Amino acid sequence: MPASVTVRYWAGAQRAAGVEIETLSAGTIGELRAELQARPALARIAAVASFLVDGQQADDTAALRDGAEVDVLPPFAGGSTERMSALVTGRVQGVGFRYWVRREAESLGLAGSATNLPDGRVEVVAQGPRETCESLLAELQSASTPGAVSDVSVSWSEAAADLTRFVVH
User: What is the pTM of this model?
Assistant: First the structure.
């Protein structure tokens, strides 16, 4: 039987949900995750988010009780993270590329930036779990980008505490 729970969104999950807190009904974390994944703006974040129930880590099998508080944490809000720095070459300035990158990164729950460089390239910095950053990298290399990407060079480093959201410069 579904329970009425208070759901609190953090970081990129909050931006995607458009609210900080809401009340939802679900019997398990798995059911709650499925409900969130059915929302286009939250689908990608919900797939990789961690969930806390009353402050305790919970997996998809965890049963929910009426009145429980559930925190939805995108990957970079906790756990092991890495920093990806990518230099994107091609026709990537003046075509909405940086704003497209921000939308893609936020949908994955990543923090970072997209910056036009004087030489016509765009520098993309993203921080989060490596597999999530690799998802963004795959999007940067796909045919769905605005403009035309001819090359993406990438380097990896340790995460730093200076990134808390995704910005466009």
Answer: 0.58
